[in-house]
Amino acid sequence: MAMRLPPVLVLLALACPRTAAPGAAQATSADTGVAAHIDRFIADSLGAVPFSGTIAMSRGGELVFSRGYGLAHREEDVPVTPRTRFLIGSVTKQMTAAAVLMLQDRGRLNVHDPICRHLSRCSAAWGPVTIHHLLTHTSGIPDIFALGFGATRAMPRTHDQLVDIFLAEPLGFAPGSRFQYSNSAYILLGEIVERAGGRPYASFIRDSIFAPAGMASTGFWDNAAVVKHLATGYVVRDGTHRRGPYEDRTTVTAEGNSTYSTGEDLVSWMRILHRGHLLSPGSLRAMLAPHVVRDGDGPRAGQGYGYGWYVHQELGRPVYSHPGIIPGYWSYVAYFPNDDVAIAVLSNSSPNLAPVIRAAASAVFGTSRPGVGR
User: Fold this and answer.
1) For residue range 78-114, what is the model confidence (pLDDT) as tens digits?
2) Are 136 and 292 in contact (CB under 8 A)?
3) Would the pTM count as exceeding 0.85?
4) Which of 78, 172, 224, 235 has the fewest C-beta atoms lying within 10 Å of its C-beta?
5) Which residues make Cβ contacts (< 8 Å) with residue 118, sequence separation at least 6?
6) Which of 311, 93, 259, 86 is nearest to 181 (CA)?
7) Per-residue model confidence as pLDDT tens digits over 351-374
8) Are the CB atoms for 63 and 56 separated by under 8 Å?
9) Which pairing describes strands 310-314 and 53-59: parallel, antiparallel, or unpaired?
10) CA–CA separation, 255 vs 249, rounded Å?
């Protein structure tokens, strides 16, 4: 488990001037002060394993920072640039949720429909489960990774074969009674989008989200495709970089197994979504409402969850955020609605991106308390 950065170290990082991190690509920045703060944090604060990835940030609809750090391909010393693509994992869930709400706006479904109305196969145990329960991780359907999927994720599987892993499992709790993160739920949402939308999930997302948001560098990786500027994913063990474990991507799934993007594209996604260009006002409000509070004792305990977004406070401000993890890749997006600030951080070797998000937010807000919050 990655160590949490002490607040005092973050404060020192933003207070002590240094040069930019080695390997940093040319910045796109309308605010040199923001760039200097972020560069100092990256150079000074991330210890024995330097940050490798990209950071992009917009404010008021304008891109104010976009820069790459470290190496996209360590074997050939290829640097990360703002054009570098990374797998984004569960950040895809908010796009899946937006697709569901678009279909609701078009009258093709309702989030309070029972899921069995929209699936080709449905367990008898899922009778009381609604689309809303899937979106909010309150369905009780066990997470596929809790059923051994992680050990066999390199095996090619169809959508039906993935569903078979959890189809016969009993619910872990009564739907709606608690929060329990479930990738299985979002795999099912992908099928619901396909059936209600009348076309494959990936096609629907490309046309309904990527295209209107101008996300030209975002897509789905299917193992065999050659994706230009896609970073290699690494894990760090005992201070040494190794290639991340292989995961089969024969089937594109809606929880985020194969989506790749850039920091700038993700900032564009947040801008168009939160400015109300994709969803009706009612659907956007529903997406961002804290329908359930995450319990337990993890780093997100006590935070609300909407449809594909955590809803909480950071630096004394409301924020919507979500992390993503794929073997060798880590991502984190955050949108501060009161300030119209969107931040995306993507990495191919750094598992703890929350301090980077806080440092970037602190720089743009001009606060001296970047370690506050979670």
Assistant:
1) 999 999 999 999 999 999 999 999 999 999 999 999 9
2) yes
3) yes
4) 224
5) 109, 131, 191, 192, 195, 196
6) 93
7) 889 889 999 999 999 864 433 333
8) yes
9) unpaired
10) 12
Tell me which residue of 147, 158, 235, 151 sits closest to 183, measured CA to CA: 147
**Neighbour tally for 129: CB within 10 Å:** 23
DSSP codes of every residue in 43-73: HHHSTTS---EEEEEEETTEEEEEEEESEEE
Helix segments in the chain, DSSP class H: 7-15, 32-45, 92-105, 131-135, 159-167, 183-197, 201-205, 263-274, 281-288, 354-365
- CA pair distance 255, 268, nearest whole angstrom: 20
> What values do phi and psi take at 69, rounded to 5?
-135, 145
* Tokens representing residue 146 in the block: 């809790």
Cβ neighbourhood burial of 366 (10 Å; 0-12, 13-18, 19+): exposed
- pLDDT bracket for residue 257 (50, 70, 90): very high
Tokens 């944090």 appear where? 41
Distance between CA atoms of residues 37 and 215, nearest Å:
28
Say how far apart CA 88 and CA 261 lie, in whole Å: 7
Which domains are delineated in the chain? Answer: 7-88+215-233+257-365 (3.40.710.10), 93-207 (3.40.710.10)
144 to each of 62, 70, 106, 166, how far by Cα in Å?
Answer: 39, 33, 31, 6
Classify 333 as helix, strand or coil.
strand
| 336 pLDDT more than 60 | yes
Contact 70, 50 (CB under 8 A): yes
The H or E element spanning position 342 is strand 341-347
pLDDT tens digits along 117-166: 999 999 999 999 999 999 999 999 999 999 999 899 899 999 999 999 99
